[in-house]
């Protein structure tokens, strides 16, 4: 390394997606004099999991996602996880609202829109579950505007495409929340990094991190220029790895003990996207159903109004697929290269308990276009095959984490890994990471900068007024937060 071009930075953020963009925007507020460097391998920002068509854009707030409200053996429904995720999304809304009000980012309609969130089920058992879920959630102030119905007429008002051509004798139920949103995380990523760039952050595209090494108390981040293959090293005391599926191999390169035993299982997917403007204009909701047996949470079917690149769209999916790549732009060797002696036992241990997932993926891979279309008909009986086109969704790497017995456990969600000395941290996993990135990054700041967090506390409180409290415990505060962020972000709130 001594003969290479070596530069210095106060912090290096690897990956040009929503996680690094959120952290860069925070550091621009808290430490405007720092020299922060953001490195992205591709020639543009937010092209992988943050891209509008590579994720569900739901603004995950647990208003419609049934996997966040599991039913116990006694029939009761636990709202705890849903409340936690909604709280985290409110933190994101507060941060975005702060940046809009301060003029840091532009017109919020470029990245966020009000879109009602709905859950839809059919069958007596599922209707009973949804009723119990509604009762459990609406006792909380973050969910108290959620409606419930078993009437076809009411469902027609909420989502006419769901009832059109559906037998009125079919047993159905739905919930409807007007507080739902659609978020174009690719557009938001670019706005956040534009803001950071204007105040001195170096945002470098076409820059591939090929190694991470200790250099005394610092880290040496070895970077290859995609344009000319030149190599440089950035020396820094703090590194954040927010590279989506590439985070696992990069953290493995760092050699930190905390990544030992962790592995990853990649899952890809596809959407059906509507091409008929008349159909698109008749649906204004995100309608989520129940996942198939063995399906990962990212594959829960949903009929969604989307705003991507400022254009309104309608999609259905996703349909799960499989590829050994860790990124859409990755290599077919990614999965195999990630298997190390330190995680081999965990990687092998996850297969037997997850045979239902393997069966599900196999059935999805074998499904024909007509079979996929039949899944859409469950949510939109009047759909016509010729009005829909296939679009490739993003690549996800589900976390395989070591448990207490050093066996592997397949996790659906996000996980933050930090070194004991706080000098390096990274985010692994998938949903709901984009929606909860602000909360995740605040937690990361506490873990990586324990000696600075108290000094930052007033600044964080300005960015996120509810930080350190629970909105769910204070109805007045919850309602004020929802109303204030709705006003700042141009969202509907009555």
UniProtKB/TrEMBL annotation:
Sorted UniProt keywords: FAD, Flavoprotein, Oxidoreductase, Tricarboxylic acid cycle
GO molecular function, one term: L-malate dehydrogenase (quinone) activity
Pathway given in the UniProt record: Carbohydrate metabolism; tricarboxylic acid cycle; oxaloacetate from (S)-malate (quinone route): step 1/1
Keyword Flavoprotein found: yes
Regions annotated as coiled coil: none
Xref: HAMAP family: MQO
Family: Belongs to the MQO family.
Protein name listed in UniProt: Probable malate:quinone oxidoreductase
Gene name for this UniProt entry: mqo
């Amino acid at each position: 390394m001594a003969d290479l071009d070596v530069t210095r930075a106060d912090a290096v953020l690897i990956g040009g997606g929503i996680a690094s963009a959120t952290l860069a925007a925070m550091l621009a507020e808290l430490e405007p004099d720092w020299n922060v460097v953001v490195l992205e391998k591709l020639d543009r920002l937010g092209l992988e999991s943050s891209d509008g068509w590579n994720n569900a854009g739901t603004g995950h707030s647990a208003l419609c996602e049934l996997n966040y409200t599991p039913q116990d053996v006694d029939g009761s429904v636990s709202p705890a996880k849903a409340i936690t995720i909604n709280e985290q999304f409110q933190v994101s809304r507060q941060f975005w609202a702060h940046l809009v009000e301060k003029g840091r980012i532009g017109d919020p309609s470029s990245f966020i829109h009000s879109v009602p969130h709905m859950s839809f089920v059919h069958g007596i058992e599922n209707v009973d579950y949804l009723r119990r879920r509604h009762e459990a959630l609406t006792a909380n102030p973050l969910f108290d505007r959620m409606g419930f119905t078993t009437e076809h007429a009411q469902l027609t008002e909420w989502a006419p495409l769901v009832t059109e051509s559906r037998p009125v004798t079919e047993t159905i139920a739905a919930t409807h929340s007007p507080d739902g949103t659609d978020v174009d995380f690719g557009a938001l990523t670019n706005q956040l990094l534009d803001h950071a760039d204007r105040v001195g952050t170096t945002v470098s595209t076409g820059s591939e991190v090929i190694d991470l090494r200790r250099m005394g108390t610092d880290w040496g981040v070895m970077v290859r220029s995609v344009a000319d293959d030149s190599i440089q090293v950035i020396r820094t005391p703090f590194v954040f790895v927010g590279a989506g599926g590439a985070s696992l191999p990069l953290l493995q390169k760092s050699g930190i003990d905390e990544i030992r035993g962790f592995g990853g299982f990649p899952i890809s997917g596809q959407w059906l996207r509507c091409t008929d403007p008349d159909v698109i204009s008749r649906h204004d909701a995100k309608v989520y159903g129940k996942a198939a047996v063995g399906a990962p949470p990212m594959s829960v079917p949903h009929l969604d109004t989307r705003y991507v690149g400022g254009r309104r769209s309608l999609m259905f999916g996703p349909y799960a697929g499989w590829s050994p790549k860790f990124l859409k732009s990755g290599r077919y060797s990614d999965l195999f290269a990630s298997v190390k002696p330190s995680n081999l036992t965990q990687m092998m241990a996850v297969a037997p308990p997850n045979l239902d997932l393997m069966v599900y993926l196999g059935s999805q891979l074998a499904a024909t276009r007509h079979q996929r279309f039949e899944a859409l008909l469950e949510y939109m009986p009047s759909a016509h095959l010729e009005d829909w086109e296939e679009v490739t969704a993003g690549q996800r790497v589900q976390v395989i984490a070591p448990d207490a017995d050093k066996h592997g456990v397949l996790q659906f969600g996000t996980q933050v890994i930090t070194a004991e000395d706080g000098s390096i941290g990274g985010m692994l996993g998938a949903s709901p990471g984009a929606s909860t990135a602000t909360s995740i990054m605040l937690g990361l700041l506490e873990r990586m900068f324990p000696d600075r967090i108290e000094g930052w506390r007033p600044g964080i409180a300005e960015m996120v007024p509810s930080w350190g409290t629970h909105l769910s415990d204070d109805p007045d505060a919850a309602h004020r937060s929802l109303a204030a962020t709705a006003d700042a972000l141009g969202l509907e709130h009555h």
